[in-house]
Amino acid sequence: MIELTDSISDIKLKINKAFAQDINSLLKRRAKSIERQCKALVSEWVSSQPEMVSLTSGLPASLAGQFGLIPGSELYAIKDITSSVESSVQVRLQQFDSKLNGGLYVYFQPSDFVNLLGLSSGHTFYKDGDLHWMDWLLNQGDRIIVVNYSYNPQLGIGRSRLGNMVESGSFRVPPQFSGTPDDNFITRALIGRNQESEISRIFTKELS
């Protein structure tokens, strides 16, 4: 006959400790791979947004034209944007304890967008001032940004060689691209059922 000298609660505690050690060991081994794959996904999601496509379209009606970007600078801007959002991805392990409290958490993009708003490539600098077009895209929504001037799309003119501003009307970010702090091209890139499904797939593959 086997006689148990430990109480049921003590046995449960020992089992949980052993289980927690195994879980923590697995998560430590997999955390970097999970983070790397999440970064790759984020880069893909952001770079495929309509705003990013418009910046590089080379068309007079593009965002590059409307924001007065010097030819070629839009490529640096897109690289900076995707790199900044990708760099913000962090996977952190809160080790499981004997009560099996813990977890592996993935953090995306600061909610105040400070990493993006601080990019010099998110500005169009010119002799008379500074157009902070990144702020327009992320925060200003459909608000009129420039009064008494509107955009004239035409190849070969303006800083962008895609168009210029003319006296009349007003200017705002086109409604299909306009964003607010709660709904902009970054939140649309990172939040949704498809995104959750992709992240879940990574966890399942790495931890199964």
Summarize the structure.
The protein contains eight helices and six strands.
What does this structure look like?
Helix content is 47%, strand content 16%. The chain contains 8 helices and 6 strands.
Order of helices and strands: HHHHEEHEEHEEHH
The first-to-last residue Cα distance is: 38 Å
Helix percent reads: 40-55%
Total helices: the number is 8
- In terms of DSSP E residues, the strand content is 15-25%
Runs in which pLDDT lies below 50 for 5 or more consecutive residues are none
Structurally, the number of domains stands at 1
Q: Write down the overall geometry.
A: elongated
Sheet with the most strands, sense and barrel status? 2 strands, antiparallel
- Report the oligomer: single chain
Strand line-up of the largest beta sheet = 1-2
Derived structural class:
alpha+beta
If you average the pLDDT, what whole number results?
A: 93
